[in-house]
Amino acid sequence: MFRIINFSSLIKLIVGLTVFFSIAVYALVLHFWPTTSLFKLFTISSGVTGFLIFLIGTNFTARRIWSVMRFFDGSLFPDINGTWEGEITFEGGKLIARALIRQTLSHTQIDLHTPTSKSITLESTPVSESGQPRLYYVHRVTPQNPDWYIYTGSTLFDVRYVQENGKKVLELSGHYYTDRKTNGRIRLRQIGDDCAQDVSYY
Predict the structure, then answer these.
(1) Distance of CA 188 to CAs 27, 30, 92, 98, Å?
(2) What's the angle, vertex CA 142, arms to CA 80 and CA 202, rounded to 5?
(3) How far apart are the C-alpha atoms of 126 and 4, rounded to whole Å?
(4) Exposed/middle/buried for 156, CB within 10 Å: 0-12, 13-18, 19+?
């Protein structure tokens, strides 16, 4: 997820906040305990740094930072956290599909479900190519039927906004290829931002 937010800028921000909050806390401590040593400042700064790193590592805080940064820079990769519905089109038919996407500043996890299979993420990489957000997605599929083999596949998703019932929604669409020599198309649209919902069929 290093391509979503410029980590060098984020690190500079953390360093700046650490210095600011450490000095502020130290000044407050000095006000009540004037004999406190300077060594206490380094102890405080370590605690503040750890706390800030913990905050940006959590999904809740990361998404808030993300939304603020997207407000100032609309070209940043969109927040695709949440529940999705759509279909998988292949030679000979279609399957309905649902997905749950959990995305932080460091990783993207997609659980894709159909009535006959479940897929988990092996690798995912968000990129921006000529201003178009895309998501490289490699997954492992476990069919519901135990007689069918587990297989892997890959998809390059276009991430875009589309109009649906007069409302702007996020859509993932792209071709997939599998090591079973099959291919098709996946199209998913975001229906909510809840990352804890059950989207499985079985």
Answers:
(1) 53, 56, 19, 8
(2) 75
(3) 7
(4) middle
Nearest to 172 by CA among 159, 185, 190, 162: 159
Q: Which helix (H) or strand (E) holds 128?
A: strand 117-129
State how far the alpha carbon of 138 is from the alpha carbons of 82, 108, 158, 176, in Å.
19, 11, 14, 9
Question: Please, where are the H alpha helices in 33-141?
Answer: 39-57, 59-72
Domains of the chain, earliest start first = 7-57 (no CATH), 82-192 (2.40.128.120)
* Residue closest to 159 by CA, chosen among 131, 184, 180: 131
Q: Which amino acid is at 197?
A: Q
Rg (CA), the chain: 22
Give φ, ψ of 107 to 5 degrees: -160, 165
Q: What are the pLDDT digits (tens) for 45-90?
A: 777 777 777 777 777 777 787 788 777 777 788 889 999 999 999 9
Tokens standing for 150? 């587990």
First to last CA, the chain: 31
d(C-alpha 147, C-alpha 196), whole Å: 31
Q: Indicate the length of the chain as a whole number.
A: 202
Render pLDDT for 117-144 as a digit per residue (tens, 0 to 9): 999 999 998 888 887 899 999 999 999 9
